[in-house]
Amino acid sequence: MLKIKFVGAIEGVSGSCTWLHHTDSDTQFLVDCGMHQGNEREEWANRQAFPFQAARLKYVLLTHAHIDHCGLLPRLVREGFTGQVYATRATRELTELMLLDAARVSGMFTEQEVKQIHWSILDDDQGFKWGRSMRLAEGVWMAYLRSSHILGACLISIAWKVGGENRSICFSGDVGCQTDENAYLPLMKSGQHPFADTDYIVVESTYGGRVRAQEHQDSQLRLARLAEVIAHTLFVKGGKVLMPAFSLHRAQELLMDVLQWMKTNLPAHEQGRELSRYDDDFPLVANVHAPLGHAVTQVYAKHLCSKSPNGKFKYLNAELCKSLAMDADAIQGMLQRLVEHGSFKVTAERYLSMTKPKQPSNFDADIVIASAGMCDNGPVVSYLERWGSDPRNTVILTGYQSAGSKGAELMPRATASPAPMDSLSAGQAEVIDMSPYYSAHADQQMLLDFLFRTDGFDCKKPATLLINHGNPESKYALSKAVQMRADSRKDNDRQIKAVRIADARWLNLDSGEVIEQSHSEQQLLSELEALRLQVKRLSDS
User: Residue 265 pLDDT more than 90?
Assistant: First the structure.
């Protein structure tokens, strides 16, 4: 029997962790082991006892490097886990960076515990290809498929024997928004889909209740809006542009978009007087200032343009080559030069630069991409202090701003496009919200396509959906949308057997039935729930 228990992300969008036990081979393993992020209650959850014995786990299968999916791996090691963590090479390197940074910031674990993690790298094998089965235990296999969420991200399929039949379950990880038809963000190629004959799909629901506007799924509109804001700030107002950004993936996306602006949109301004102050002696400079982002960009330089044995790009969106008029080698070389030398010459009058860790802020730059994304810490704080009170300058928000963050305080002032000069507030920089253009999470429609699409394979086996990793409203909205799509099923759509909201009970995947807990287990769960509610009341008061 293969049974499953959801440990994290049951009530929200962080702390992803799922426990599986194959009883026939007595093999226990996890899919992800993430940190809870948010308020004090989430911090409290990170310090609670695991429901499993870490020493008895044989594997962790890691979907990607975001801290809410990998952040408790060092604590797992501290408590006796000596097994292998399976991941792509890019995910391993990014995860180590994120965990070492978290060790310094959170104090929950040590750098030594991060370094004690044992890794098994999937794509070090020359025969690697997406979807290839690998043995986990007697009668259990796994396969990794490409996700478009961030570099190295995957969805994971696990198969096992039930009698003479094969069964399988697919874990979505975080579903990216790039598709074959519209890979509209700059870096990642399209994601793959669960196998057509899978029996279960565990799917995230972060944006399960949200449908993204079509304009925010159009790369040309995004680039045009960015060009409008930058040009208005630099050449009309005579100011500077600040772009707060998350160090992992967002900073690299913005770097490519700013480079595209320099190569494509900026030349249009050279016919007029607007660029009179930019020449060989005073070039236009776009700078990336993100200490963790510097190390992350080094990983992107190594792996973004890597290829599978079949000669295809593992991750790179080939449209980026067209957009930048640069081949993959040139893109890789540009990233390497930025990391190693701190500067890349676009033309004699235009430069990209990257501030190395512990170097001071570059207030002379015209455009700055700075961490952290929510403006609470990191280099962005000094830029806001220096530039934030000048109405000539513009702050472009490019990501989620949690309640109580400095970025959230800026959001009420934000508009979607530049305002007329005479309407700008004295003593305040202009704020533009471009975050809807950059979200790396699939919206409701994309999640439905991810679940129902079988890439042309006609399969009669219906799947059971297990919805996790979302707030309750998003989960139920996605559940309702799935039922509506199933009722109007298109040709070759996956058939849906049932839709369940994931909970903390054991589920027998052989039979699809909930495994009843003993009286003592039920009593313990009730006590834990009562304690959770008490903590929530205290944190809300």
Answer: no
* CA 41 – CA 29 distance, rounded (Å): 26
Bridge partner residues of 121 (DSSP): 87
Tokens of 307: 């290829």
Q: Topology of 2-8+15-211+440-540 in CATH?
A: Metallo-beta-lactamase; Chain A (3.60.15)
Number of residues in the chain? 541
pLDDT of residue 164: 87
Q: What angle do CA 343, 95, 308 make, to 5 degrees?
A: 75
CB-based burial, 337-349: b 16+ in 10 Å, e otherwise:
bbbeebebebeeb
DSSP 235: I
Sorted by where each begins, the domain ranges of the chain are 2-8+15-211+440-540, 214-438
Contacts within 8 Å (CB) and 24+ apart, 512-518: 512/464, 515/3
Pick the closest to residue 443 from 204, 109, 259, 244 (CA basis). Answer: 204
pLDDT in tens, 87-106: 999 999 999 999 999 999 88
Query: Which pLDDT tens digit goes with each residue over 186-206?
Result: 999 999 999 999 999 999 999
Record the tokens describing residue 252, joined without a space: 């690299």
Higher pLDDT, 412 or 520: 412
HSE-CB for 419 with a 13 A CA cutoff: 19
The pTM of the whole model exceeds 0.70? yes
Pairwise CA distance, residues 334 & 229, whole Å: 25
349 and 278 Cβ atoms separated by less than 8 Å: yes
Residue at 86: amino acid letter: Y
Token output for 387: 């530039």
3-class secondary structure, 333: helix
123-153 pLDDT per residue, tens: 987 778 999 999 999 999 999 999 999 999 9
The answer regarding whether domain 214-438 maps to CATH 3.90.45.10 reads no
Tokens of 6: 């959801």
